[in-house]
Write the structure tokens for this entry.
Amino acid sequence: MTSPPTPVTVTLAQICDAIETTLSTATGLGVHQSYDELTENIADHATLQVYPESGNTDAWTSNDRTTHQRGVAVTEFIFHADLYAQQRINIGEDMAALSPLIDAIIARLEAQKTGALFGLTVSGVDVIKAFKWSWSRVVFEYAAVKYMGARFVITIRVF
Amino acid sequence: MTQATGSQSFYDAFVEIRPAAMGIWIDISGHGSSISEGGGDRQTGEAYTHDGDTAIIGFGKREPKEITVRAVYTEGASDPYKYVLDAYHDHTTLQVRWSPLGGDLNEKRYTTDPVYSIVTSCPDPTGEAGSGDPIMFEFVVKTSETFQDTEST
């Protein structure tokens, strides 16, 4: 019997922490929080919060597997990385604060080229096989305060 | 007629190959993603008479079949791609056997001919950067016929 390819288990926590660690070095970022570090208010700017949002299996087929007997399943995880640039004051100043931060996050994402994406290796296996991302500007309301920010939606593929 | 109750999707199929060089059946279910079959048509002969309006048709021989297996590409020494490529290069037989319902006791299985099962195609793995899907490969086994029997273990 041949073993199914890369039988490795990865957790949401591992992926989330890997994304947060990778993006944490973005220029201009003051605070970065993974899923278990989220605070009930935004204490400092700029803040990045990374957390799992949803998932989907199998991303490629109409059921939960790519191969017979589920040797391989292409699992998709969607994470949000919410970027809080500053509290809403003036639209021009808010945008001026936000734009370079978005550029900095994009630069970190674009730096993921080959090998262990987001630096994540589990049992010697590069578990993140592919990813894609998008972003949109958002005026967040957090603890009854409005912030100018952006939401990065990062889709991770694991198999 | 009442609705069928014994149907099942193909997701749990049990797929094996038997390279002549190994002499044993090797489970590749965890790599395999699809099996398709072509050919096997029975040849016929036909003739028309002055009197009749339709043809007289006779039975001929059955044409070979082509079994196409699609599987995940990996590079281990005991992985399907290695076995298939070796059989392709070495001109040795490689049988395919599959059980659509999963290969439990008394379930049907289909096996290519033990003598005439030849890998006719095993292209190198190819792909595109824009895909996040696993790398796949596909091979074709040409066989004189397939046999249906029953899983006994």
